[in-house]
Amino acid sequence: MRSSMTAARSGLSDVKGCTEPRLFTPPLRELTTRTSAGFECIRFAETVLRMTLLPWQKWFLLHALELNEDGTFRFKRVLLLVSRQNGKTTIIKALILWRLFVDAAQTVIGAAQSLGDAEDVWEEVVTQAERVPALKKRMHKPKRVNGAKAMRLRSGGRYIVETLERDAGRGKTADLLFLDELREHKSWDAWNALSSTTLVPARAQTVCASNAGDVHSVVLRDLRGRAKTAIETARTDEVTLGLFEWSAPDGCDIDDWGVRAQANPSLGHTLTAAALQADRETKTENGFRTENLCQEVEQIQTGIIDFEDWAPLQDMESERGPDTRVAVAVDVSWDRSRTHIGIVAERPDGLLHVEVVASRAGTAWVIPWLVERLDNEDSWFDGRVTVQERGAPVSSLSADMTEAGLTVVPCGGADLAKSAGAFFDRIRQQTIRHRGQPLLDEAVRAARARSAGDAWFFDRKGSPSDIAPLIAVSEAAWLLAQPVETPRISAYENTDFVML
């Protein structure tokens, strides 16, 4: 390994970071002043704020602020992934101030892994604005009280900060929501609360910036997985989630300066090769991959299911056969933050189609969702649903399901081990197909097992992220294998018989 001084002497100080990200959602058409507000934002940043934007920062703004024909932003949600110390805060300062002073945003909300971190970004944004006399005249005196900091414009616009709590943003509406370090969202609570603030405004955006996540970064992994799947399958025309990721490819040589340039777009501008090499020499390989190459590093502990067995079973065109019985199962995450409905049905070729057909926050929506499909005469749902009988978060829904007219087939005791083991065997035997859903893929990666005698079953609490999607489809497969009981009719039954 060469030292940082050797790296500098060998001419690596001339290495430049990549302007274009390795992974990104492509634009719908050529980006011009008519199709992207990024040009206006860049002009404001450079001429009014006197900021020096790097090539990659301009590229990001041009693509993230792509416009629809009606002038609204194409992307309702934007995910920016880049290695540390590459200047993502500079982008955010420019974006927030442009939205407030030029685009007439009424409310900007910022949040981070701690209130202090969110307030640090807020302070940088306010300070940047106060340096420009013309902008300072349009501002009220900023409120710098810890825990209640607020920047207000005389036109009515404001920039406030929130914490990552389950009631964050309640009652508020935002034109721009900025979430810093999305990798720190270990549950869906804050995301569910904060993301709802941007539902109403026509030109609202949620912009998330982060370094690479880990197995616990459930929100980041889900959003990135969805966007990455859309990119890889060339199905981005109608998406409203944009991914822009400067990262090194999986399995790369971490000493390759070419891949370092992919993950560090500021290399050769504000980040020197010597500084990056110094980090290489003082960090573990996993630490360098995560922090400096923006790569997600899997934990050493592996799940019960080998993902290499699961991945080849993906079939984006998979669907159930006509007039086939559909088995339905419901499961709830260990922290009760999210509920998933899984289905399994036979395909025309005899293989099993598995899919998570619904996944939302909380549990209140589940029974109405199922009843609505039961009441639909053309529905595929026959009213039978399986849930774990006792000892699981979903067990509390069983009685209410029955009361709502659903036929609950309990899965408990030895059946839990049977459902997990049989699904495991089907993966090994390659007799199932799935559509590559990110939340199901993540559950398969994360699933840990808990033993019960000589058998085992999936362990919700012991798994590093939510595996309820996997449990839902595995129990649906178990239900499909159970016989459907038909009611016995008495030989004496007669609809015309009347007892006097």
Automatic annotation (TrEMBL):
<dbReference type="Pfam" id="PF03237">
    <property type="entry name" value="Terminase_6N"/>
</dbReference>
<protein>
    <submittedName>
        <fullName>Terminase</fullName>
    </submittedName>
</protein>
<dbReference type="InterPro" id="IPR005021">
    <property type="entry name" value="Terminase_largesu-like"/>
</dbReference>
<dbReference type="InterPro" id="IPR027417">
    <property type="entry name" value="P-loop_NTPase"/>
</dbReference>
